[in-house]
Structures are given as C-alpha cells and as structure tokens.
Design brief:
heterodimer, A: GMP Synthetase, Chain A, domain 3, B: 494 residues, alpha+beta, 5-stranded antiparallel sheet, 17 helices
Chain lengths: 356, 494
C-alpha cells in the first residue's frame, strides 16, 4: 500500500463516522426497570422508571407511562423522556398478569432481537398491575429496578427460586419439549414479595406455583443449592433444613412408544433448627423420612399439575429426546398428559450444628 | 567534479598551513636556536601540552639528527608517521596530531598528542536500577570501549571502526562477538553505516534513526542504552552494539518487542519475581495505551459495559462537567504531557516546584472547577504512571504518542475504533523489522522457547541456549561443541 492512501483511509474513518450515533453516558436516560400491562384496546401499556444521578451521588427516580401497539413503538409515545432511551442496563422487566396471559412475546420479541439488551435481565410476572408496582418506587433508596434485581438474584442464589433470566426464557420458549417460567411477584400493603412461579405455555401464562411448590420444583428441576425449608414431623414437631443441595437424575425409558420417566433426587441438607427436645439419630431418621416422603408426594402433585395444564417446565420432553434415538415429538406430546412418572427421593443429613 | 579535485591536488603544505592559521588556536612554532632548526605545527586547543613539553620538546632539543626518519625513531610516542600529503596532514592536525617540519620541506612527521577531555564515569541516570552494576557509558569512545572490553575479555570480541559525517568525522565502533553474532547482522550494520551520508552526527540516537528499517515507524527499532551490563548481555546473546564518539548511549540491534519489556535488573532478581514484573510491565503497556481511549469509547457509546453500581458514581462525578468525554480526556492528557515536557526542560532546582504545581493545583483544581471527573483523574494518572514502567526510554514516548490517535478513533467509532486501531498497529508491528529480523519475534513468528527470556524470565537452568532470534551459530551458551560430543575426543590425539 502506498503511503498516499493512508491519509485517505484515515479521513474516511472520520468522515464516515457520522453514521454512528453517540450515547454519552450522562445525557442518555438509563432505564433500569420496565413494566408492561395490557392497556386499552389491546394495546401495550408500558411503564419505565428513569434514574437521575445527582452530583452528591443521590438518586432521583421518575416514572413514565405510555401505550402503543409494539414495545419499541412505546418509545415514540414517551415524549417526556429525552431520547435515545437506552435499554442496555435494564435490570428487570415485569409483566402484568393480564399481559402475561395475553402473551409476552409481543414485548419480548424486540428485546430478543436487540443486541443492546442484556441477556441477564430478569423477567417476572406481577400479580396485578406491573405499572402500579413500578410507580411505588419512592420507597426504595436506589430505585426499584436495582432493588428488584437484587431481590430476584439473591432468591436464586441463596433462596428457593430456580435460575431464570431473559436468556433462560428465550431458550425454554424456543426449545422443543420444554416450557418457560418466570418468578411471580406481588405487592403486599407495604412491600414487594416473591409469591411463587408463573408457568407459561408458549408465550402465555397458564398457571402459578406458590412458594412451597416452587421449592419442590427447584429441587427436582436441576442440580441446585436451595435455601431454607421447614418440615412438619409426624410427632408434631418442626424442623428447619438449610443448605439443601439437590442432585437430580432423569431416566426415560421406551421414549418413542409408551415412555416412562423416573426421577431420582439425591438431597443433602443440614438441620438448622428443631423444636423438640433432643435431636438424636432416631429423630434425624424421622426427619429424613418425612422429608423424602414430602418430596415424593409434593413433586408428584406438581407433575400431575403440569400434566393437566399440558406444560413441561421440567423439560421432560427435552430430556427424553436426549436419551432416545430418533425421538418422536408428536408421540411424546400425545402421551404426555398420561405419562407414567415416578419420583424417588434420597435425602441425607450432613450436619446438625455444633451442639450435637 | 574534476576541476575541484584538481585544485585540491595542487594545494601545497604551505597553502594548507596558511588556511589553518586563520584560527586563533593554531600554532606554528619555529625554533631556530636549537641544534637543528625545526618547526612545530599544531592546534593548541586539542593537544596535550604536558606531552609536548616533557616528551617532544626535550627530545627535539637534544637530538642532532637532520632527517625525519631518524626523529621518528627517537621520539617515544606510539602513533608516528611521516607524510607529505597536505590533505592528510590537515586531517591529522584537526584530530590532535602535532607536525614536525624540518627546513621547509614538504614532508612532516606527525605524532598523536591528542588530549581527550571527558567527564568521570557516573551511574546510569535514565536506566537506573537498584541492584546490579551502576556503571554507565560516558561521552568518550575510548573509555566506553574500555568498559565493554573489560567486561568481555574474549578474543573474539571485535570492534570495527567506521567514520561517519563530513563535518564531524565521528568515529563509530561496531562491536560484536564473532561466531556468536550472526554475520549477516554485522554486515548489515557496517554496510548501512558506511553508506551514511550526513554532515554532523550529534549523538548515537541520530545514527539509530538513520539505521532503522522503517523510519516512518514510531516504534524504536534499536535499543538506546547507557548500561554496560545491558550492552555486554546483548552482545553475548548475539546482538551487535554501536558505540558513537561523543555519545553516552550505545545502540543495540537487532531487537524485538519482547526485549523492550526487559529491564536488566530482572537478571539480578529472582526469576519468579522478575517474571512477575515483566508481566506487570506488559500489562501496563496495554493499560497505558488503552485506558483513556476506553474511557472515551465506553462513556460515549457503550455505557452498558459499566456495572450498575459504578454507573451512579460515574454519572454523579460527570454530571457537572460541560464537555463531552473526549474533550475532558484530551484536556487532562495534554496537561499531563505538558507537565512531563516542562519537567524535562526545566532546570532541576525548579523541577521540584513543578511536582507541586502539577499534582495539587492542576489535579485537584481541575476536578473542583468541573473540568474533569474524579474517575478520569485516577485513570489518567494511572496510565501516565504505567507508561513509565517501560525500561526502554524511547518506548515510553511511543506509548504516550500512540494514545492520542487512539483517543480520536475511540471518539469516532467507539470500541470498534479501538479494535480498528489495534489492528492497524498489529499489522504494522508484524511488518516491522529490526535490522531485517522480525520485530514481533517471539510472538510472531512464534518462538515459544524464546519466551523463556522475553515475556518471562525463567531460571538460568532453563536458559542454556541462545535465543533463536539472533540467528546465532553458537546456540549453546556455555558448552562448546566438543564438550557436547564426548565421542569425538580421541585419546590418541592428546
């Protein structure tokens, strides 16, 4: 290359860069949380919360609301917000219950297409209206977005919630033989709580799990380190287990004709508290037995519920596919509601504290 | 040019002497009182008066001979010659010779009485090290040669002399160890030096720029060093060193990118610690070039890269600043370079004030006046600090220079611009050569064994071989071939 060309190329780099739009950090509005509800006339009603950072590191938040047919179309309606609205730091995306039952993909589609949107964004369903929940943001110091992000993240890491985010939703939605789920949030009088798990069939929400069911789901879903669990013993005492670690193995036999699924759950747990007098070996065995029995019964109930709803959040179909040659999905789907599924739990107490 | 040469040839010795006598320090001393009348011709400013008085004058006044040839035998000075060529006489007189003339003849006896004034040895100032020898080159070529030969008392240490410069007639010594240094490298250096046409060579760095393979590049293609241990170390690996009269730096070549990370102190520290420091230096080069452009790119285009919690701090600290990030960065970067440049130009006594002015006033005041953000101040200070960790001074300047185009690229194209510029620099580095050897050598072409002593410094046990880079014939550092093959030792031969 002759040296005469180099200045030309450099010049072109500078001249042609008019096409790239700048997003200077302190000029663009940063959206941390957005909520979507069903608006009038089947429109999407979007609520976003913006944060303004003051020089003394205080945060001021404001919410904006608009209605449109598409989620990107909302941006035009949000005329009170300085443009461009950036979704790169979106922490949580919430859907109102009605909107979730109507179908979330008309909103999510634009996020799944957009390379600027993070895949680690948490998605959730609100019992009631998502917009109303976001509007109550004043109570939270750093704004409601970061608060909910921490709430959901800590529940996944230390609590009883299964791993979930936009990427998981995407994977489970488009994957064959599985169905997505989202955490379910609820606004009590003064606080926001996690009330369970919202079950989806395709893009539509079809059912809910409460907190105890969510724990069971987490245990049998995949290898997971869950948080605390309280069980009732036959003698009327109570015990609390913590650091409940589950290891699940799924076995599918005869996948293409009359499939049979057996789920084996190995669980290690530690006893955190016991209301009786003395925790001896016999009582430990009782706890283990009660726990195993509870897991088997409750998870069977859970699976029955899934079969009735004809959804597959446990991804049984996908697991069957991976264990069966030339897997026949249509045959599986026909058999799914009446599938023979058995759960075998195998619990183990690791520790019971320093006093024993 | 024939007419010119013709007039030169017709010049007589008297013409030359007339011409030279225009200078005040030129002396023509005629002694008619002695037994043989003689004339001494010399430049008083560059000869040693002690030698003249004690040796030359006493011998001349005692002697009774009437021919120069006999005088040549009497005078106890080693560089003696008889010449009748006026041009040669002129040259010799200019370099500190004394001419003895008898009876107005055209022949003169020339003797070397040159006096070299030079400063004492001093510890290296630019490449200072805590451990290791503190012996730096000085401006006198003889002393420098002495320093090097004392460290390598090896019969194969060669010192070839080349003279460059029509005005300065600078003596240049090309030194290498024959058999260890590749012949091709030596020939390249000598040939390039002989081909040089220039008037005045002020310093070795001038020669360095003229010998470079690609003079458009910002990367140094030879190492300037004042450390004698560094020179001898490189000579031992098979490099060629160039010493220049009147310069306290030597040039070493060929070099590669890995050697720019090498401080010679690494060899005096433990291998693990030295390797750690080399990795730190490598990272600091990268950080120093990329830190502020990244700040510009991320704040202008990709704020998503910041963690949410840092975002609040960052936006808060920037919320009062009226400029876009690139202006803010350029302002602070230029300030730092101003400080550095002023520090280099100022007399050292004023320099102390400069630190206070620069550090406190500009740093703190700029933040308080909302010209820059706190975070940027930290980034700029760190990257300025990082740029000085490079042991080769010219590389420090390269790093500081490279940052500016990169900031512009970051402003115009964001991270893509940084990648684009990185690509540009990478292609340039891959094409670049130092005395014909690949500049990016241990990386590309990949010579994994050479990494032992470039990106890391592994223990001496693992460094039995010389680097492939120098294309040396003697690969083994301390075993001769005979020792390597004990079978060839025949007892009958002994």
């Amino acid at each position: 290359m002759s040296y005469k060309k180099i200045p030309m190329i450099l010049l072109m780099c500078i001249v042609l860069t008019a096409c790239v739009s700048t997003e200077i950090i302190d000029e663009v509005p940063v959206v941390f949380i957005a909520g979507y509800d069903k608006g009038s006339d089947d429109k999407i009603k979007g609520t976003i919360s913006l944060q303004r950072f003051k020089p003394n590191q205080e945060v001021e938040t404001r919410t904006f609301q608009a209605e449109a047919r598409t989620s990107k179309g909302l941006r035009n309606q949000l005329s009170g917000v300085p443009k461009p609205i950036t979704i790169g730091k979106m922490a949580v995306m919430l859907f109102g219950e009605e909107e979730a039952e109507h179908g979330v993909l008309r909103v999510l589609d634009s996020f799944l297409r957009d390379p600027a949107s993070g895949r680690l964004t948490y998605v959730g369903v609100v019992e009631g209206s998502a917009g109303d929940l976001i509007k109550e943001e004043d109570e939270y110091l750093q704004g409601i977005g970061p608060f909910l992000q921490i709430l959901i993240r800590q529940s996944i890491e230390y609590g009883n919630m299964p791993q979930n985010n936009l990427h998981f939703f995407d994977y489970k939605y488009y994957g064959k033989g599985m169905d997505p789920y989202m955490p379910l949030l609820k606004k009590n009088e003064n606080e926001i709580v996690i009330s369970g798990l919202a079950l989806f069939k395709g893009e539509k929400m079809v059912g809910k799990l409460d907190l105890e069911e969510m724990f069971m789901f987490t245990l049998i879903n995949r290898k997971h380190k869950a948080g605390l669990f309280e069980i009732t013993l036959p003698d009327g005492n109570y015990a609390t287990l913590y650091k409940v670690i589950s290891d699940v193995s799924y076995k599918v036999s005869d996948g293409n004709k009359t499939p049979k699924v057996s789920i084996e759950v190995d669980i290690n747990a530690n006893i955190a508290q016991y209301t009786g007098d003395k925790l001896d070996k016999r009582i430990k065995n009782d706890i283990v037995d009660a726990f195993e029995k509870k897991i088997e019964q409750d998870s069977m109930k859970l699976i029955k519920k899934f079969q009735e709803l004809q959804i597959d959040p446990l991804a049984l179909g996908d697991r069957a596919r991976s264990q069966t040659r030339k897997f026949d999905f249509s045959n599986w789907e026909n058999h799914y509601p009446t599938l023979n599924i058995s759960v075998k739990a195998n619990a183990d107490i690791m520790e019971s504290g320093v006093i024993d | 040019m024939k007419w010119f040469q013709k007039t030169e040839k017709e010049m007589t010795l008297d013409d030359v002497l007339d011409d030279l006598s225009q200078s005040a320090d030129f002396v023509i001393y005629q002694n008619k009182a002695s037994r043989i009348p003689y004339t001494l011709i010399y430049f008083a400013s560059i000869i040693d008066p002690a030698k003249l008085h004690r040796v030359v004058l006493t011998k001349l006044n005692e002697s009774e001979t009437k021919s120069l040839e006999e005088l040549e035998g009497i005078i106890p000075i080693e560089n003696l010659e008889i010449s009748s060529d006026p041009i040669k006489v002129q040259e010799r007189l200019m370099s500190g010779y004394l001419a003895v003339r008898l009876n107005k003849s055209q022949k003169v006896l020339l003797m070397d009485l040159s006096l070299i004034k030079s400063r004492d040895l001093s510890p290296p100032e630019i490449e200072f090290s805590v451990m290791g020898p503190k012996e730096g080159l000085i401006e006198d070529l003889q002393t420098n040669m002495n320093l090097i030969r004392r460290r390598i008392p090896h019969p194969k240490l060669r010192m070839k002399k080349v003279t460059v410069g029509t005005v300065s007639k600078t003596k240049i010594i090309v030194t290498y160890i024959e058999g260890t240094a590749s012949e091709q490298n030596v020939n390249t250096v000598v040939q390039r030096l002989e081909d040089l046409d220039f008037d005045l060579i002020a310093d070795s760095s001038v020669i360095g720029q003229m010998l470079e393979d690609n003079s458009l590049s910002v990367f140094p293609q030879m190492i300037d060093t004042e450390r004698t241990d560094r020179i001898t170390g490189h000579l031992n690996y098979g490099a060629v060193a160039i010493l220049v009269e009147g310069s306290s730096n030597a040039l070493i070549g060929p070099i590669n990118f890995g050697q720019l990370l090498v401080s010679f102190e690494d060899y005096y520290l433990g291998w693990n610690i030295a390797s750690f420091f080399r990795i730190i230096r490598m990272m600091s080069i990268l950080m120093s070039i990329v830190a502020t452009p990244l700040y510009v790119a991320v704040l202008t285009y990709h704020f998503e890269l910041f963690p949410s919690k840092l975002l609040a701090t960052l936006i808060s600290s920037r919320s009062d600043i009226p400029f876009i990030p690139v202006i803010e960065v350029l302002f602070l970067e230029i300030t730092i370079d101003l400080l550095r440049e002023a520090g280099a130009r100022m007399p050292s006594k004023v320099g102390q004030t400069l630190g206070i002015v620069g550090g406190i006033v500009i740093g703190t005041a700029a933040v308080e006046a909302s010209l820059t953000s706190n975070i940027l101040l930290i980034i700029v200070a760190l990257s300025a600090l990082a740029s000085f960790t490079t042991p080769v001074y010219r590389m420090t300047n390269t790093i500081r220079f490279l940052r500016y185009p990169l900031i512009l690229f970051a402003q115009f194209l964001g991270l893509i611009g940084i990648a684009l510029f990185g690509l540009f620099v990478m292609v340039h580095l891959i094409r670049l050569t130092s005395l014909g050897s690949p500049y990016l050598a241990p990386l590309y072409p990949p010579r994994v064994k050479d990494w032992y002593d470039s990106f890391f410094r592994l223990p001496y046990v693992l460094q039995k071989k010389r680097s492939h880079f120098f294309r040396t014939e003697k690969v083994s550092r301390f075993f001769d071939k005979k020792e390597k093959k004990p079978n060839s030792l025949d007892f009958d031969e002994q």
